[in-house]
Design a protein that fits this description.
271 residues, Rossmann fold, six-stranded mixed β-sheet, 10 helices, 24% strand, membrane, ABC_transporter-like_ATP-bd, transport, nucleotide-binding, ATP binding
């Protein structure tokens, strides 16, 4: 496979917040560790609260800067300057947040929301932007008429599709999704999973999923990364880790997931 993104000795250290001159919490440290993402691959990152999953997601897409180490995008940038190259890399790694309703500007129509990244990052004319927006709305299963809707006029599932459209609008190579299914009901969640799989087949996208839902992880992820207290404690092929987890924390996470799966009277899982 072709490596499209890699993190080398990636480290992030947060400052311990202070309150009335005293430290309220200890500083959080992520890493150092290495991580690679292959082309058209889905990598799931799992772990408990404060394990560092969301921090890692924000580092990968450039929303936060590492304290040490580097993130390398393995494609030739169309620009020569370092600043332009970094900006281009940020366009190539886009993020979808857990609650779309909170990440979409309520004062803008869906068309306005999708115009913004194109205006800021491309030289497309207004007519070209309109054409691009219409195409991406169709890609995510929305209608052209949704262009004129405001976010509050859409269902949770439709809002998540708008968030997906905003991530796709700059033709990225990698999409980082932080708990994208958590706020969706089961039927809509299933539709969104199928949409993501279809987009990956059609566009050759790589996905990085932060998720607590191990059922979805097992269904869609090629590889799984397990985090605890800012460290990668285990990583490997998804089926391998589900069948033969080595680390105690991985074993507990998978055991907790399997305990929720209905069992037949003979002890076998129900299909």
């Amino acid at each position: 496979m072709t490596t499209i993104l890699s993190a080398k000795a990636l480290t992030y250290v947060s400052e311990a917040p202070r309150r009335f001159g005293r430290r309220k919490h200890e500083a959080f440290k992520l890493g150092p560790f290495d991580l690679t993402i292959e082309k058209a691959e889905t990598v799931a990152i799992i772990g408990g609260n404060r394990s560092g999953k969301s921090v890692l997601a924000r580092l990968l897409c450039g929303a936060m800067q590492p304290t040490d180490g580097e993130i390398i995008f393995h494609q030739d940038a169309p620009h020569s300057s370092t600043a332009a190259k970094q900006q281009w890399q940020k366009q190539q790694v886009r993020m979808i947040f857990q609650r779309s309703s909170e990440s979409l500007n309520p004062a803008l129509t869906i068309g306005g929301i999708l115009h913004e990244p194109l205006k800021l990052n491309t030289d497309l004319s207004y007519a070209q932007r309109e054409e691009k927006i219409a195409a991406v709305l169709s890609q995510v299963g929305l209608l052209r008429e949704h262009y004129f809707f405001y976010p509050h006029m859409l269902s949770d599932g439709q809002q998540q599709r708008v968030a997906m459209a905003r991530a796709l609008i700059l033709n990225p190579s990698v999409i980082v999704a932080d708990e994208p299914f958590a706020a969706l009901d089961p039927s809509v969640r299933s539709q969104t999973v199928n949409l993501i799989l279809q987009l990956q087949r059609d566009l050759g996208l790589s996905f990085v999923f932060i998720s607590h839902n191990l059922g979805i992880v097992r269904h869609i992820a090629d590889r799984m990364v397990v985090m605890n207290e800012g460290q990668i404690i285990e990583a490997g092929r998804t089926d391998t880790l589900f069948r033969w987890p080595k680390h105690e924390i991985t074993q507990r996470l998978i055991s907790a997931h399997q305990s929720l799966i209905p069992q037949a009277s003979d002890g076998k899982r129900l299909k």
